[in-house]
Structures are given as structure tokens and as C-alpha cells.
Design goal:
The chain is an all-alpha fold and 116 residues long. It is globular and about 40 Å long.
Length: 116
């Protein structure tokens, strides 16, 4: 168990790392997202909806209020687990699955901390 003194700091670090990671991928590396969604044959509207949802959730994480962090973590946990399932379905390598899996775990950690 993490000592109580470290928990708030660690919680904030995880929260910020998740948010920055998502915003970086969906803004700076958007060309990669476009290519990836084409590979999966997902429609443009679906890609754009996922981007809006993920960037909004990432912004909620950065704002940091408990209700927003809780909502964002639930949304991102569901989306990241879904992405992980898509990677499994397409027989991707473990390296390709690491981002969705690690973000799933990180969001589960945030939710656990909020609930306990």
C-alpha cells in the first residue's frame, strides 16, 4: 500500500500523465490515429467521436475536480479496455497493446483511489 503522504501526489502524477498522453496522441500524432482507424475500417464519424470523447475526458482529468476525474476515468477505462480488445481481435503484438492496457490500469487505479 502507498503511504498516505505519497498517495495524493502519486494520484495527481498518474492523472496528469494519462491526460497528457491522450492529448499528445490525439492532437500531435493525429495522422497516426487516422491511419490506425483506416486499418480497422472504422468510419470517420466514429474516429472523430472517440477523439472528442477522449480529449474531453483528458481535459476533465486536468481540471482535477473529483466528480470530473471520476467520470473521465470511467469513460477512459471503458474506451481503453475496448481498444485493448480491438488489438487482441486483430492479433497485434504485446507492444502494440501496451498503451491501451497501461492506460486501462492507470484509470482503474484512479477509480480505486476515488472509491476507497
Amino acid at each position: 500500500m502507498i503511504p498516505n503522504v505519497i498517495t495524493p501526489i502519486f494520484f495527481d502524477v498518474i492523472r496528469i500523465v494519462i491526460a497528457v498522453s491522450i492529448l499528445f496522441v490525439w492532437i500531435v500524432r493525429y495522422d497516426n490515429i487516422v491511419q490506425e482507424f483506416k486499418t480497422y475500417k472504422f468510419p470517420h464519424w466514429f474516429r472523430d467521436s472517440m477523439g472528442i470523447l477522449k480529449c474531453t475526458a483528458a481535459t476533465f482529468l486536468l481540471i482535477g475536480s473529483t466528480p470530473l476525474v471520476g467520470s473521465a476515468s470511467v469513460i477512459l477505462l471503458v474506451l481503453m479496455l475496448s481498444a485493448f480488445i480491438v488489438h487482441i481481435k486483430h492479433s497485434h503484438t504485446l507492444i502494440q497493446m501496451v498503451p491501451s492496457l497501461s492506460l486501462s490500469i492507470a484509470n482503474a487505479f484512479l477509480l480505486y483511489q476515488l472509491i476507497s
